[in-house]
Amino acid sequence: MLAAPQAFFPVRAPHFRFIATGDASKNPIPRAWADGSIYRTQRFNAFHMIFPDGEVFFIRSVQAFVPQIKDPQLLANVRAFVGQEGRHGREHSRFLDVLRTHGYEVDSWVSQFRRRLEWGLGFFPASWSLAGTAAGEHFTAEFARIALDGRMDQHHPDLRGLFEWHSIEELEHKAVAFDVMRQVGIGYGTRMMGLALASYTIVVAWYRAAAHLRRQDKLSRAELKRGRKEVRERKDLGLRHMLGAALRYARPGFHPNDEDDSALLATARNSLVLEPA
Ligand SMILES: [Fe+2]
Ligand SMILES: [Fe+2]
């Protein structure tokens, strides 16, 4: 009997401590953990609020099509995809405790976002949710390329580890939802509908989550202006990256593996620290 195929990528189990306050020798996470800039930190923190329920949406959208998948290799990749995404959601969700300890109110926003995604899963055809997930995965792969370019090097080691681990796995499984979409016969029109849904949802959720946190910081106009300047100067993730990624995805013959991330992945895997000291 032939052995069942292995997924093309592993499911790792990191252990980040995420200590918010207390003994300084344990390297607690400061409020402005992104190079001391609270404005930039909140743009990253917004992802902790989006990912846990976003990953659940991705997993449920793909799992709905598992009975139609005939290729055992793709099934193995789907299982590993679910394992990776489940752990991403769990670790980002754990980090929300740090935000709560720092005094931020996050739960009203997170539960509202969860209700909206659940509504979307029930309202839209399953093929649209899968197409939205495939496009969402293309965007998270693009975010991963930016996160792995060295910009996290000076950040707190737990946050650096969290974002780099997540980024590596996003690049490893970037084609899984897309391949499921192709295997179940979803065509270009629905793929583009998914691109529109994913673009809108990610941009709106990201900006609203960051704004929810920044309102609680009560930043002055001058601080906001300085923050926006820092984002520009650091060339942080922004709309232009998403627009570029969307245009590439809209090419009719596009496949996620057309974009070769092997060198970036090899370097990132070499320096990945899953249990920061
Ligand atoms: Fe993920
Ligand atoms: Fe993903």
What does this structure look like?
- By secondary structure, this protein is mostly helical.
- It has one domain (25-271).
- Helices cover 66% and strands 0% of the residues.
- It has helices at 38-63, 72-101, 107-123, 126-147, 157-172, 176-183, 188-217, 221-234, 239-249, 262-271.
- α4 (126-147) crosses α5, α4 packs antiparallel against α6 and α4 (126-147) crosses α7 (188-217).
- The longest helix has 30 residues, at 72-101.
- It is globular.
- The N and C termini lie far apart (45 Å).
- The model has no long low-confidence stretch (mean pLDDT 94).
- The chain binds fe (ii) ion (2 copies).
- One fe (ii) ion is lined by residues 55, 85, 88, 140, 166, 170.
Summed up, what is this model?
The chain is an all-alpha fold. It has helices spanning 38-63, 72-101, 107-123, 126-147, 157-172, 176-183, 188-217, 221-234, 239-249, 262-271.
SSE topology sketch:
Elements lengths: L37 H26 L8 H30 L5 H17 L2 H22 L9 H16 L3 H8 L4 H30 L3 H14 L4 H11 L12 H10 L6
Shape designation: globular
Main sheet characteristics: none
Radius of gyration: 19 Å
Bound molecules: fe (ii) ion
Strand content: under 5%
Give the low-pLDDT segments.
none
**Helical content class:** 55-70%
Overall pLDDT score: 94
With helices defined by DSSP (H or I, 4 residues minimum), what is the helix count?
Answer: 10
Distance between the termini: 45 Å
Domain count, please report it: 1
How many E strands? 0
Order of helices and strands: HHHHHHHHHH
Classify the secondary structure makeup into a structural class: mainly alpha
